[in-house]
Amino acid sequence: MTISKFEDYTTRKAADDGTTAYLVFGPTAVYCAFIVHQPTAHITAKQTTNNVGLGLDDYVSLMFDTSGNGTNQYFFEATPAGVRYQQASESTRYNPPWTARATIAGDRWLAEIVVPYRFLRGAGRAWRVNFAHYVAESQQLYTWAYDAQMTNPYAQVFWPTVRNAPSIATRLAKPTAEIYGLASAGRDARVFEGAAGEFNVSHGRSIGIDAKIPITPSLNFDGTLNPDFSNVESDQQVIAPQEFRYQYAEYRPFFTQGATYLPGNEVFYSPSIGIFDHGEKLEGQVGHFGIGFLNVGTYGASDRAYGLAYSAPNQETSVALFGAQADRLTGDDNVVELAAGNTNLVSHISYGGSTALESGATTPDEAQARRSDVYVGISKANYSLQAAYYDIGPDYHPTDAFVAQNDIRGPQVTGSLSSTTNTTTAIRYVSISGYLDRYIDLSGAVREADTGVTGSITFKDLLSVSVGQSLSSLRDYVVAYPSYIDGVTYPFDQSTVSASYRAGTPNTASVAYSWGPFGGFFLQQLSGSVSHRFSRRYSAEFDYGAVDERNFFGIANGQLLRRLSIFGSLSADQTLSVAYRDIQGTGGFSVPGRNFALSYYRRFGKGSTLQAEIGSPAAARTLQRYLLKYVVLVGSGSGE
Question: pTM for this structure?
Answer without folding.
Answer: 0.84
